[in-house]
Amino acid sequence: MPRPLVIACGALVSELRAVLTANGLHDDVEVRYLPANLHNRPDRIVPELRALLAVHDPDGDRPVLLGYADCGTGGEIDRLLAESPRLQRLPGNHCYEFFAGTPVFEALAEAEVGTFYLTDFLAKHFDALVWQGLGLDRHPELRPMYFGNYTRLVLLSQADDPTVVITAAAAADLLGLRFEHHHVGLAAFEQAVTLTLRKVA
Length: 201
Hints:
The protein is an alpha/beta fold. Strand 6, helix 9 and strand 7 form a beta-alpha-beta unit. The radius of gyration is 17 Å and the shape is globular.
């Protein structure tokens, strides 16, 4: 059987590499990444996935793990999955859910609906992906339009990195939101990746 193909969001590079290496899987799969800034253009995710599949799985005979949740595609990724049983994606609606695990994320979401979430990657790249990505560097007056219904910013951290916490707290201050930090590590993500790889292998 051909080596499984993993196509993942660029925001998962560090975490996915760590999980694959820790489980002795790094050499057993081929990994390709799409740009992380597709977070801001979810309508482009499935076309980009199709383009990579055409290049790296032209015969349609490889097991494929998509390193995405729904990620704001409105079910488009699941419609792509429905075309072939060899395609699987990570469980959940977004990376916050598969990093935190569904029970933890649902508890956070239920406790306070108006929550903006960051992962380590999004905290490190907040300026480029959020502040500049939404045009707030040029039009800060738009901040209430984007974030007026939010009340807190929650960092769901993967690594134990104080600089990420400081950066996320600064982002919360910039957005005028209350800051909370929940260290979730990689356990839930590791389980999601390994279980889904077993389904496609």
